[in-house]
Structures are given as C-alpha cells and as structure tokens.
Specification:
The chain is of the alpha/beta class. The chain is 50% helix and 11% strand.
C-alpha cells in the first residue's frame, strides 16, 4: 500500500496515512526520513529488475547487453532486420481525401499527392507508436558552499510511451541511453519490430533524434514532429518577429499554421519571405524561424491527411505519461530531488501504471508485457 501511496502523495502525507492506519503513536511512528530511504532503496532494486530483464532479452539475441545497440552479429529474424511493413494509404483514397480537403482553400494551404501523402500508413494495425520525452526536476544539492548563488541544475528523467494494437506500456530511466536500451529489449520481447512499422513522436530535440538513429538505424523507421510543439514554437518566433494589431498578428500565425498543417515546409518559408517590411518587427527572429522549419522539415508530415485518417499527429501520450510518472509527484514548488530519489519514485510509479507492481512484490519479476 505504501508504494502506491508514495506515487501519489508526499512522503509526509504518506507517513501520516500509514501512522493513522497502523494506529501508531509518536514513539513508534513511521518517520518520513525512514520512509524516504526505504522507497529509494526499493526503487533502485526495481530499476535493477527492469535492467536485468532487458539485458537477459538482449543477450538472448546476441546483442551487446551493455549498450543495447544492435550490430551485425545480432541473431535477429529477417522480419526485424528487413520487415514487410503494413500497407500505406492507397493513391485512389489519398487523392479522394485530398480533393475533398482542398475545396475552397487557397494555393498555399492546399494538399497535394506527394511523398508526404503517399507514405502515410493505411491504419494503426501493425504499427508501433513510440513517444519519447525528457522531463527535468530540480536537483537537490548535498550542500551549498559559502554564500554562492544556487545553481539551476536538473535531473532528467527520460520517459518512453509505447502503443500498439490497442495496448500500451511506459518505460523510464535517468539517462536516455538507459531508456533506449530498455526500449530495444521491450520491442524485441513483445515482437514489435517483426514486420511492424515503427513511428516515433518527439518534440524535435536533437538528442532524441540522434538516439533513435543510434539504436534503430539498422532498419526503417519514421519520426514525426509533434504538431502542438511545432505550432507553439512557430508562434513563439512570430510573437517576437512580427508587429501590427492583435488581429493582424493572429492572422499571420493562423496562415502559417495552415500551411504547415499540410507539411509543405517550402511553402511555409515562402510565406514568411512574403511578409511586408511593415509587418516585421525583428527580421532576425523571422530568419531563425525559417531556419527552424528547414531543420525540422525531415520530420514534418502531412498532418492534415493524418488527421483525416484518424492517425496520430502528436506525442501527447508521453506528455500525459510525464505528468503521471514524474510531474504530478516531483514538480511542486520548492521540491528538489537526489538522482536516486527521483529515479526511484519514477520507476515505482511506472510499475504501478504498467500493472507490474503486484507481480514484482510477490514474485520479484518484471513481465515486460503490453497491457490493455
């Protein structure tokens, strides 16, 4: 019970609940510091359980269990190395949807049948959707020297949400390398790389993109930049770069978003270049926005068509997982954490979410299986 409680309540609140339930007076009460030490120790043991399970899986495929990186010596089935991917949307269906979407729209915001449209999956079947994000909590320094100013250092918890065939699972670790090692093992154990299309969603962070290539560069995959993050980032640049009335600024933001909704990044850049000098307050910010769109263009998709097909366009699953696993418990005002303390709470919470806690407590085993 106390493990489930600490995933939702503070240590002080959890200790109060336990002392009331157990009818303990002050002389024999559960102390907050004792509870915190116990949870940290239990969480470390649980993290080792996840890692041990992952390394066992990797070793069974002749993959270096220290790195988790798949190399030429790995014993993998052809369906992993050269998967027969599920069908993409047919040209006839795509052109019909595009024709209907384009009615009454101007040239810049119209869809067209190209690689962006033709490469979209027909449906979610045999697709594994993976969302990756980092969430930082304030680091608790062991001591402060003299009167120096407090530094703003953070502990980064990597959270990965996996969704396939109506089921899901969440992984977490401090350090992206560890998290991706867990991910590789999980996908192999659940056979989610065997003739499955891997679709990654992220906020566009370079470290996430680099790690996806590092661990999955041996086979085909897709990275999609989260739509909400793309729209927010563009609006931030525009807020600093354009001028005019509130309605005029809003119109420009909406028009740029409408173009990017089609995935046609070159049209978006042309639109920004067409802005009049009287509309530009800071030309440097407009140039930075154009550079941002160019950099992220490989991970843009035809969001409009995916939306019409009821396919995912967002990494909101991992944003929600971040809230549940880390933020709800660890990001209140004034809170700071040790590396072990933060990681322990996160992995305990993830184990509760995955429905693995009872099994771990009774059998000391992680099943590593998708849950509905």
């Amino acid at each position: 019970m106390n493990l489930r409680l600490v995933s939702k309540l503070s240590y002080r609140e959890t200790a109060d609940v336990l002392n009331r339930v157990l009818h303990r007076d002050e002389s024999v009460s559960v102390k907050t510091s004792t509870l915190e030490d116990w949870v940290e120790s239990y969480g470390e043991s649980l993290s080792e359980g996840y890692m041990s399970k992952a390394e066992e899986i990797l070793d069974s495929y002749d993959i270096d269990k220290q790195s988790g990186i798949i190399s030429e010596g790995a014993s993998l089935p052809p369906s992993v190395l050269n998967p027969e991917l599920p069908a993409v949307i047919g040209e006839k269906q795509a052109r019909h949807l595009i024709t209907e979407y384009n009615r009454g729209r101007d040239r810049m915001t119209k869809l067209k049948y190209d690689d962006l449209a033709s490469g979209i999956e027909e449906g979610p079947g045999k697709c594994c959707y993976i969302s990756v994000d980092d969430i930082g909590v304030r680091f608790q320094k062991p001591e402060r020297k003299g009167k120096c100013k407090k530094g703003r250092s953070f502990i980064e918890n990597t959270v990965i949400h996996i969704q396939a065939e109506g089921k899901q699972y969440t992984l977490t670790a401090i350090g992206m390398d560890k998290a991706f090692k867990l991910l590789v093992a999980f996908l192999l154990e659940n056979r989610l790389m065997e003739d499955y299309r891997l679709v990654f969603f992220s906020d566009g962070a370079t470290c996430i993109r680099d790690n996806i290539e590092k661990y999955f560069g041996f086979r085909q995959y897709t990275i999609i930049l989260d739509w909400l993050h793309l729209e927010k980032k563009c609006n931030e640049f525009l807020s600093m770069g354009i001028k005019g009335s509130k309605d005029e600024k809003q119109r420009i933001k909406k028009e740029l978003a409408s173009i990017l909704w089609t995935g046609r990044h070159q049209n978006a850049i042309c639109y920004l270049e067409s802005l009049k000098k009287s509309q530009v307050r800071n030309a440097v910010k407009i140039e930075e926005l154009k550079d941002y769109i160019r950099r992220k263009s490989p991970n843009l998709t035809c969001y409009a068509l995916r939306h019409e097909l009821n396919l995912r366009i967002s990494s909101n699953r991992v944003e929600k997982a971040n809230d549940l696993v880390v933020a709800a418990r660890q990001k209140h005002n004034g809170m700071s954490w040790s590396k072990n303390g933060s990681g322990a709470l996160a992995v305990i919470t993830v184990t509760v979410i995955n429905g693995e806690l009872d099994r771990w407590m009774t059998k000391h085993r992680i099943d590593y299986r998708m849950a509905s």
